[in-house]
Design goal:
Blueprint lengths: L1 H22 L1 H4 L9 H34 L2 H7 L4 H13 L8 H10 L4 H14 L1 H10 L4 H25 L15 H5 L4 H36 L2 H5 L5 H15 L6 H6 L7 H13 L2 H10 L2 H22 L3
Helix pairs in contact: 1-11, 3-6, 3-11, 5-7, 5-9, 6-7, 7-9, 7-15, 8-9, 9-15, 9-17, 11-16, 13-15, 15-17
Subcellular location: Cell membrane
Family: Belongs to the UPF0718 family.
Keywords: Cell membrane, Membrane, Transmembrane, Transmembrane helix
Length: 331
Amino acid sequence: MQSRQKQSVNFSTVFVLGILLVLLIPLLLRGKSLAIPNSFQQLNTIFLSILIEAIPFVLIGVLIAGFIQIFITEEHIRACIPKNKFLAVLMSCVVGAAFPACECGIVPIVRRLIGKGVPLYAGVGFLLTGPLINPIVILSTYMAFGNDMEMALLRMGVGFVAALAIALVISILFKSNQLKKSKGSHHLDARVNKKQPFITRVNDMLKHSIDEFFDMSKYLIAGAFVAAFLQTYVSTQSLLLFGDNQVQSTIVMMALAFVLSLCSEADAFIGASFRNVFPTTSILAFLIYGPMIDLKNTIMLLSVFKAKFVFVLFLLITIIVFIFVNLASFI
């Protein structure tokens, strides 16, 4: 089992190093007579823009994850989480809605919370609402749509109800935490460090955050590269041809949200640019679906959770978001 994990780590490391080497080619060949295709330079630009958007939030996320690992015990978690499933999911969604994080930065936080004893369904509620309807996202949505509260309120209301429904379904389908790594290695950390001086515990927190950052960054880089590759070589216009009616245009906008892998703090400005192309329902689907699940986020989730769980979560998010945004058009 350990050898398989080592092979997986080695493969992911080699893969990421290969990506970085390929993307450094334009710098290495600068001033040479060999022509570099414009599409490759575009790929490089998109890749870097995705990383620059995501890394600050990942840094915040791993610092919070390190704090949880060193300072928060299982007893703290049990005291805060209601025993009732619905109340636990509701609380996690409310906390997520007030927590400014993007879909990348929230993954290490959720992993650490679940490893510390937070039920999977509560972790999913936090995972979905954090990037989707936090105050920064709602403010950016309000500004992107010309200081009009309608889209911001729709995003907040429909997104919250959809996240609640997804987390409740997860509570029925999965009983274990679905983490790839057992939580045994985390079990004693906070209790042991509780006896250490505060400065020592802060130092341990920073060390843990650094380890978490490098662990998550490999998968962020891989996801950003795949997203940039698809954005460069798959024509957006070809997708727009399929958006003849509301159902098709909703599917197209959800597909765009998944492939573009935009930061949730900035996606509203992209969504607003489609107002003259697609109906409000389709744009709402774009704004809700992308922060819940996108390409780079999926690769990060696969590094943390079992593949079966990630696949089921992907299907649930896709189906429930599609249904809920179309139902909202009748209200």
